[in-house]
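Milestone 3.1: sequence recovery, worked example.
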């Protein structure tokens, strides 16, 4: 009997929603806007956070050392694939050589963009590596020899799409042969052209712009197990307090700060949308309550309880908000997949929110918030209507 009552209430509620569909569309749209904002905000935040975490994990180093004024530039290359050049004295390498906690240490030198003889690569960063000590590039090598020979270079996955494995490119006026390429790393390495330090020594300084042969750009440190990163950082600062030091945990701090500002803006917008959805649900169900007092009075006179009336109207609100929630989920996912490229932060990071269990959960949470907002707005007028005396409700026009 109870199941029959639930079915009957749901059937009546659905017929009422369909009969008054045009008026309910406004409330459906309000709920869908709220859900879309929530889903987009969730996916936006998750995509950026995941991209930063993935990029820093894939570097393979716990500590990164750069010139103090170049920390933001290094982050931009690591996270956003932006071409950068900055230098510090090569003597920093020697000063860190005695650190007991360091398991591996290597360095890179960032040079001006490759200008090739046959191909123009608009988004490529020339990176000079020490192939004997490298542990940043080699783990990502998808194809090619383990070590570079004279005149040979590797390229990142992005550059490989345009250049391929050819031997007709030129680098700083000298012919080079592309012998290998990296897997997609999701970092600035995807836009790199990697050459040997020995080949760089053969290039005249006049062809290298601001670079001088006694300079390096960045140092990567991989620590032995059991050593605390904070203690190692403190030891490095004792050796040279002027170095710019980034750890795996704080790379992307500026990006995260920007993200928090964006999320605060989203939060204000979502709060306003929630209040509008609640007010719209409240006004809609006040109108419904005024129109259907006589109907409710007759139902009460026939034996319907207050709980039946409340359930019927709240079920209508549930149907309306559920439809709006589904539409909002579709809009939110459309925005993150097709329009997020217009956001500088997402486009530079290459952040993408893929289809996975977490994103489904975020979508359901967004829909749940939309449903709750609609039910809250409907609750007060519905409870007032349900408490009316049957005779008074029937007499009211």
């Amino acid at each position: 009997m109870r199941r029959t009552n639930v079915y009957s209430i749901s059937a009546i509620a659905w017929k009422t929603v369909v009969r008054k569909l045009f008026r309910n569309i406004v409330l459906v749209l309000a709920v869908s806007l709220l859900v879309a904002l929530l889903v987009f905000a969730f996916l936006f935040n998750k995509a950026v956070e995941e991209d930063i975490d993935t990029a820093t994990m894939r570097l393979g180093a716990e500590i990164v050392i750069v010139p103090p004024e170049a920390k933001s530039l290094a982050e931009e290359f690591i996270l956003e694939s932006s071409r950068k050049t900055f230098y510090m004295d090569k003597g920093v390498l020697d000063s860190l050589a005695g650190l007991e906690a360091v398991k591996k240490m290597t360095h890179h030198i960032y040079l001006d963009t490759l200008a090739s003889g046959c191909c123009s690569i608009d988004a490529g960063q020339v990176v000079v590596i020490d192939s004997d000590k490298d542990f940043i590039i080699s783990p990502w090598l998808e194809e090619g020899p383990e070590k570079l020979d004279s005149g040979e270079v590797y390229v990142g996955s992005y550059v490989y799409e345009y250049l391929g494995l050819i031997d007709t490119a030129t680098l700083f006026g000298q012919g080079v042969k592309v012998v290998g390429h990296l897997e997609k790393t999701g970092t600035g390495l995807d836009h790199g052209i990697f050459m040997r330090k020995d080949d760089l020594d053969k290039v005249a300084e006049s062809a290298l712009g601001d670079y001088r042969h006694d300079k390096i750009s960045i140092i990567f440190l991989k620590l032995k197990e059991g050593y605390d990163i904070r203690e190692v950082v403190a030891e490095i600062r004792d050796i040279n307090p002027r170095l710019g030091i980034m750890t795996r945990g704080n790379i992307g701090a500026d990006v995260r700060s920007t993200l928090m500002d964006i999320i605060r803006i989203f939060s204000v917008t979502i709060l306003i949308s929630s209040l509008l959805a609640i007010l719209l649900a409240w006004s809609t169900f006040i109108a419904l309550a005024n129109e259907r007092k006589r109907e409710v009075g007759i139902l009460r006179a026939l034996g319907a309880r207050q709980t039946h009336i409340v359930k019927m109207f709240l079920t209508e609100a549930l149907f309306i908000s559920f439809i709006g929630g589904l539409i909002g989920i579709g809009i939110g996912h459309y925005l993150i997949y097709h329009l997020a490229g217009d956001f500088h932060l997402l486009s530079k990071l290459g952040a993408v929110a893929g289809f996975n269990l977490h994103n489904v959960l975020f979508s359901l949470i967004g829909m749940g918030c939309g449903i709750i907002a609609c039910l809250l707005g409907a609750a007060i007028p519905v409870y007032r209507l349900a408490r009316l005396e049957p005779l008074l409700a029937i007499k009211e026009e």
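The radius of gyration is 31 Å. Residues 253-291 form the longest helix (39 residues).
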